[in-house]
Amino acid sequence: MVLKGYRKPLEMEDLWDLKENMRTQQILSRFDRNMRAEVRKARRELERRRCKRSLCEAAPDHRNGLGKAQSQDILVLVTPSLSPHAWLVSLAALTIRLLISFVADPTAYAWQGYLYALLLFVTALVQSLCLQQYFQLCFVLGMSLRTALMAAVYKKVSVGTPVSSARTYTQGETVNLMSADTQRFMDLATFIHQLWSAPLQIALSIIFLWWELGPSVLAGIGVMVLLIPINAVLATKARRIQMKNMKNKDQRMKIMNEILSGIKILKLFAWEPSFERQVGEIRVRELKGLLHFTNLQAFSIFIFSCAPFLVSVASFAVYVMVDEKNVLDAQKAFTSISLFNILRFPMATLPLVISSLVQVSSRGRAERRRVESWALLLTPKSSFAWEQDLSRPSRVTLDIKPGHLVAVVGAVGSGKSSLVSAVLGEMENLKGHINIQGSVAYVPQQAWIQNATLKDNILFGSDLDEARYQQVVEACALLPDLKLLPGGDLTEIGEKGINLSGGQKQRVSLARAVYSDADIYLLDDPLSAVDAHVGKHLFDQVLGPDGLLQGKTRILVTHSVSFLPRTDEIVVLVAGAVSEQGSYSTLLANGGAFAQLLSTYGSQEGSTPEGEATGMWAGAEPRVSFVQVPFIECPWSPVLCYVCPERPMLLCGEGRGVACRRSCVRGACGGWTPWDAATECAALQVKFSLYLRYLHAVGWGFSAWVFITYVAQYAAFMGSNLWLSDWTDDSLRYWNQTYPTSQRDMRIGVFGALGTVQAAFLLAGALLATRGAIRASRVLHQQLLSNILRVPMSFFDTTPTGRIVNRFAKDIFTVDETIPMSFRSWLTCFLGIISTLLMICLATPYFALIIIPLSILYFFLLRYYVSTSRQLRRLDSVTRSPIYSHFGETVSGLSVIRAYGHQERFLQHNDRIVDMNQKSVYSWIVSNRWLAVRLEFVGNLVVFSAALLAVITRDNLGSGIVGLSISSALNITQTLNWLVRMTSELETNIVAVERVREYTEVENEAQWVTAQRPPPGWPSKGEIQITDYQVRYRPGLELVLHGLTCDIGSTEKVGVVGRTGAGKSSLTNCLFRILEAAGGKIVIDGVDISTIGLHDLRQSLTIIPQDPVLFSGTLRMNLDPFDQHSDEEIWKALELAHLKTYVLDLPERLSHQVSEAGENLSVGQRQLLCLARALLRKSKILILDEATAAVDLETDHLIQTTIRSEFANCTVLTIAHRLHTIMDSNRVMVLQAGRIVEYDSPERLLQQQGLFSTMAKDAGIVSAQATVL
């Protein structure tokens, strides 16, 4: 495989298949078995404590199951590998003693020397094999542990979590749990056995040291014992900081997720600076915590690097001082030095293991809390609430007869969607019960679309029955859409259905339900996102008495009055309770709330949403967007997209599965290459400029000083070793003489001083490096964030959110924590090897000749391995992305998946994609072992050569220098190994700098503020002149608007109508310069909008958008993120938006926390909040973009009344969704194919018998006065 990877880019097919016992399913079943046993045990323990009436309650310790599931069998295998290694390490040190005594004794036979050299080589070889076997087993254990946790978290979320508990944690936090936290467990598993093997190695070394130095060694042990509490204090502090920083990281990622989801709103309202400031503040706290953490780490490294040296100084000083006869000779000194060096590894890894344990345990606790809170059981005690402590449960008693069509109506927030959720079992059942007989299909209010083909979205795991499929597609009015999509029903739908309009998504969601052929259909307002014509078609063909679903039980939540007479039963909800129930005629006769509603709005019969059409009308225009584009290429853009003829798709995500591998990108390698190969072209040669860019971010001054301090540290290290070598020769100089006290004191003093200098430089270097790394983190994150908020909207339309989030999560984490560690380790290893080779060459100059062939061998191993390793890491990241995408998709579509009962299918799919990732991880582990065995062989050859040369040239050598040469050579094996590992890791990780840079160089939209500012109070009149205005989505594409020319007078009310793709939304995007002009101009109150800054323009206009987007934070922050308005103004706006009573009822009022994406408010309430936003801005121009699509008629009436009264002196442009909303406009603009075809008052247009009058007839409007509004 290494050869294959060196010759060509590796593909998944080139990797080995997993063994049966390493597959996700097997691992998860073992994990579950052990977990259940542990939970039972913990429950028994809990009961026992309760019986004792103990005050403290025990929580089930989920971690035990995790440990046992994997560790018992591995422990048995690991122990035999690790124990001999510990003994062999000590044996090598003793062999040095024999070699030194051989060199010092001129009478010894030559064969003895060769035997010792060979013994040293064999010992080192066996030791290497044992160690690599240990690492192989540990890495496989870690991989299994990560898999078990990922699968368990996914299973818990998809099968066992009530939606109310899932809401406690944001999607960002749960994805973090699966990505970063499971990785920490994997990393820990590698070194967990050091907890017992390190003390064993330390004990063996001390025993052998006792033989050498006698009781003097106790001085060294005393120093060690003193260092333990210092480390404990550092570890505890580090843990606290890490815990705090985890919260900052989660918080930053949560806000980033929201920013990217609601980026269009931020741009339309010019809110980017407020959110940039919020993220910046969290980042400052995060970096402050990181600086404290890395400083503590630097101290920890300093203490443990000094430990062996301090121990040796203490031991040697005491040894020579306690008795005048004790003279330090080469045998004693270098055997001891070797044993002290053996101490260095376990003592260095022990704190790392402890700090890793700290991180894992802090994350483990969080994980446990999440998993436990997800394990809430719904008890059948009918009242329902979203959360246990909510004060407004729904009280509902309903009996729905089989085969009936039941309509559920009510005002916004009356609990219609909650009723559906309760039936699905997605709410807390406080009292009563629900009986459901038969299978369920569910159409949510906001359609959930999978990242798969359109066909897969409809089939949703069912077998294909072609005739039935065609019947469903036709009934759901999808045939015209399929003609428009580049690949028909095989078109790949992007993340969250990004390349479908709202109406198309809703119809796909409905088609999925119809195709599933269930017994009970729960339809949560599926007609709100489609226009009147299509709504009527869907009701006739699918939902109504003569539709495909006739004879099925259907619960239809709707705001459309026109369909109610054709339903079997109507349920009217008021404030979460059923106020009326019965047939249409019965309720009318009763004269209750329902009858009042009808008498108020009955004249709007049939006036259901109007704006979003499909190609139902003859000559329907295609929806102009990047969907139809077969090939998109911006010469310098990092986002390239090519739609392949055999399977069209839109977005090449990082790991889009099969479809993505088929999609192509023009790579730097020339020609058309698959997406992953194109990424590979970028990653094949990691350019030196990347390192320079990172060092530039660190700062040249910092970088230079770090290098100087590290070099000085190694110079002091060599100096102390050469001094020791010279010191040991005193034993020969003063043979049979009394050792002078002054000489002894001078030796100890200089040795100690050199060690102190070495320690001081080490600490200075580490602290400087942490400062520099923090500076780089700050600079790179700031550049990335600042640029992402300034890129044009088209970038977000063509780039999956997951990929941008990945930059802020994984890549920034790499820049923050991984790269600085890798750089430090690389520098340490590199300088360590150079200093060791220099010392060996000083002892035996001939060794320089041996260095050359060994270096060549080393170089070739390095080249072969690094290219393969990087590709395996690439495959790992390519196969890892689908895991997170799938997880995110599952969380957002949880209620749909459960309603259809498809949890098992999603679990199996998760198992498959985790197994795909396992394959690349396993191959990477094996490739590491392949390299390590060969590298250690090179290292062992260095040891053998040094020993052999010492034996051959023993007549010219002092025993001190031989001891120095061989004990240094013994050190080099591990260091060589680490250098390659660090080189490879650094190469892999430094790519994160490139990925961050790539997004910092995406072309920006126009300046936010320019030198030319509009006059104060602009626009004061609200006059808009559009002159020959042309627009295209991107350079090189067709025009979307073809030369629009019109004047809109001050305070005029203009309705904009047209079929799908006519250019209505494009027009609003042009007013806000989301799309820039390709020709012509728009002038508002005498100012050409293209000459001023974007923020000056966007802050002066107001829009109520189609999708009401809210951000997590307080209600006040959602209305006024810059704190520009007083509380009185905000309350006034809420009153006008009919939300004041609702907000007054909330315990925290304006400080009420809005959850992620505003999930704890109904869609109608969110829409009213958007109205309140608009009321606060008080600008002279208001744009309403299909704003009343998701609201019931009553709320719609409230919104329209408020707009008419409060914006009476403003210019209002309404993108019509329900035609009745614009019938009282001064003028109506009718768009078709990007041109204005009619522009006059509604009365005149109705008389002209043109396009507008046709649409009005479809909506049941005969005259401009036919509407109450």
Level-1 CATH class name of the domain at 1024-1259: Alpha Beta
Shape, principal axes of CA atoms: elongated
Tally of alpha and pi helices: 40
- CATH H-level name of the domain at 1024-1259... which superfamily? P-loop containing nucleotide triphosphate hydrolases
C-alpha Rg, in Å? 36 Å
**Assembly state:** single chain
* Major sheet size, sense and barrel closure: 6 strands, mixed
Strand order of the largest sheet: 5-6-7-3-8-9
Structure classification: alpha/beta
How far is it from the N-terminal to the C-terminal residue, by CA?
73 Å
Overall average residue pLDDT: 77
Residues in helix, %: 55-70%
Q: So, CATH architecture of the domain at 1024-1259?
A: 3-Layer(aba) Sandwich
GO molecular function, one term: ATP hydrolysis activity
Domain ABC transmembrane type-1: 91-359, 704-988
Protein name: ABC-type glutathione-S-conjugate transporter
GO cellular component, one term: apical plasma membrane
Keyword list:
elongated; 1269 residues; 9% strand; 6-stranded mixed β-sheet; Rossmann fold; alpha/beta
How would you characterize this protein structure?
α23 runs antiparallel to α25. With 1269 residues, the chain is α/β, with parallel strands linked by helices. The chain has 40 helices and 25 strands. Strands 5-6-7-3-8-9 form a 6-stranded mixed sheet, sandwiched between helices. Strands 19-22-23-16-24-25 form a 6-stranded mixed sheet, with helices on both faces. The chain has a 4-stranded antiparallel sheet with strand order 15-14-17-18, covered by helices on one side. α38 links the parallel β22 (1181-1185) and β23 (1211-1215). Among the domains are: 405-599, Rossmann fold, CATH 3.40.50.300; 1024-1259, 3-Layer(aba) Sandwich (Rossmann fold). The longest helix is centred in the first third of the chain and has 51 residues, at 110-160.
